[in-house]
Specification:
Blueprint: H1 6-28, H2 34-53, E1 57-58, E2 63-64, H3 68-78, H4 80-98, H5 102-121, H6 129-154, H7 161-206, H8 208-230, H9 236-264, E3 272-275, H10 276-286, H11 288-293, E4 296-302, E5 306-309, H12 311-327, E6 333-342, E7 345-352, H13 359-364, H14 380-390, E8 394-400, E9 404-412
Parallel strand pairs: 4-6
Antiparallel strand pairs: 1-2, 3-5, 6-7, 7-9, 8-9
Helix pairs in contact: 1-2, 1-7, 2-3, 2-4, 3-4, 4-5, 5-6, 6-7, 8-9, 10-12, 12-14
The chain binds adenosine-5'-diphosphate and magnesium ion.
Adenosine-5'-diphosphate (ADP) binds at residues 320, 324-325, 328, 352, 354-357, 361, 365, 370-373, 376-382, 405.
């Protein structure tokens, strides 16, 4: 009877090492997406191979180690593609080490399919930490029992007390501990990222002085050109050039001041009922000049809905988001603005088919001074995010380079006759 021998400890050690490696590499970069998936696949592959090299016990019918843990963890935290990569690594290395086994093949393919099916069924991504831990233990117990039944059905296999302890209880207990550690680390990563954003916003306050400095630059340029314009005998074309430069510098100064003032004074104290469809239509009307300039076609699907907040701030927040969408389609395109009311929530979606963003860029949205535009201030979305968060709204973004971007904003619905 084996419960905790040196090999069990070795197996757990390899799994922990791979988890810390993933945490270290993902936490260092603020990048998510393919990078973290690749790191997850490679680290868990190593854990699977090392676990197999350190079997807990071996007999003619089975080799037992904890390779199932990194395999299932990989599917849970890395998704189906990572899971599929791990399945291939697992089957290939198992065949190389112990020869081909049809039973092992069936067991792992079933494990892969059942994990993905149950994750979808129980909406794993939306679970709380505690629910994920409970889910992983139950899932693991199901896998252990399933595997035993498959082995019993396909080969000569005896389920005894040893089997129950080592194949069902031990891996499930290991999974409990490991998922708990994973969840703690994931929380840590999220907290660190939130902290970085908060620190940046604090720095912004101290940078108010530098904004005035930024405004001074266009002002100095404008002053110089106005002086030149004041001179006699300037050719007409030069005059036009000076006026154009002065106007573009004026626009830039105006934009910086406008964005900054809106951030410093989000006006969120006066609460009123906002009619979402009415205010979104107003914002679209305000943007008419840019819409015409970019030859964008607008489609509206606005369902009436009420929320609580400050009307001016609401307009400001959506003006910035819709303006960005229009600016992402300089050669024209379609802008879709929709709102719908669902289960006490008002959900607004702003979809463009413009240039889109990479996952790295999407991650940085809302950070002060993040801009990919030559004359961008990088303050617009920061203000929108701040206003929407002050109104207890939630923002999520889906974007694909070359395809377009969709901003989803969700607010709690205000009932028409509810007292404030
Ligand atoms: P700015 O517009 O001055 O650059 P913002 O804070 O409004 O600053 O936006 C920050 C950045 O986010 C933009 O520079 C752009 O790269 C990106 N962005 C925002 N919305 C979109 C969108 N709909 N499509 C593509 N990129 C976007
Ligand atoms: Mg902008």
């Amino acid at each position: 009877m084996i419960i905790f021998n040196q090999d069990v400890i070795n197996n757990l050690f390899y799994i922990l090492l791979s988890i810390f490696l993933i945490f270290f590499l993902v936490e260092k970069k603020t990048v998510i997406g393919w990078y973290s998936k690749l790191v997850t696949t490679l680290s868990f592959s190593l854990a699977i191979i090392f676990c197999m090299l350190s079997p807990i016990y071996q007999n003619p019918y089975c080799v037992h180690d904890l390779r199932m843990i990194p395999f299932v963890l990989g599917i849970m935290y890395g998704g189906p593609f990572t899971g599929f990569g791990l399945l291939v690594v697992l089957l290939a290395s198992r065949t190389m080490l112990y020869g081909w086994s049809f039973v092992a093949f069936v067991i792992y393919v079933v494990m892969f399919i059942v994990t993905i099916a149950l994750m979808r069924w129980f909406k794993f991504a939306a679970m709380t930490s505690r629910q994920k831990i409970i889910f992983s233990v139950i899932l693991f117990t199901i896998h252990s029992i399933n595997s035993a039944l498959i082995a019993k059905y396909l080969t000569v296999f005896f389920i005894d007390q040893n089997y129950v302890i080592n194949f069902i209880l031990l891996p499930s207990l290991g999974m409990l501990i490991i998922t708990y550690i994973c969840e703690t680390l994931v929380k840590q990563i999220h907290m660190n990222r939130a902290l970085v954003k908060m620190e940046k916003i604090e720095v912004l306050g101290q940078l108010a002085a530098s904004i005035s400095h930024e405004v001074k630059n266009p002002l100095t340029v404008m002053k110089g050109f106005l002086k030149l314009l004041n001179e006699k005998n300037i050719p007409l074309e030069k005059k036009e050039q000076y006026i154009n430069i002065t106007l573009s510098e004026l626009n830039r100064a105006e934009e910086i001041i406008h964005d900054y003032l809106a951030f410093a004074n989000p006006n969120s104290e006066q609460l009123e009922e906002i009619s979402v469809e009415e205010q979104l239509s107003k914002v679209i009307d305000l943007l008419e000049p840019i819409i015409l300039q970019h030859s964008v076609s607008i489609k509206k699907g606005l369902e009436p809905g009420l929320i609580k907040g400050n009307t001016r701030s609401f307009q400001q927040a959506f003006l910035n988001i819709i303006k960005n969408a229009l600016e992402s389609m300089p050669q024209g395109g379609d802008l879709l603005v929709t709102s719908l009311v669902q289960q006490n929530k008002v959900i607004i979606a702003i979809r463009d088919n413009g240039k889109g963003m990479s996952p790295e860029e999407t991650c940085r949205l809302g950070e002060p001074y993040f801009s990919t535009k030559e004359t961008g201030t990088g303050l617009g979305l920061m203000i929108s995010y701040r206003i929407i968060e002050a109104m207890k709204g939630k923002i999520s973004v889906e974007s694909q380079i070359g395809k377009g971007t969709t901003f989803f904003i969700e607010f709690v619905e205000a009932r028409e006759n509810s007292s404030s």
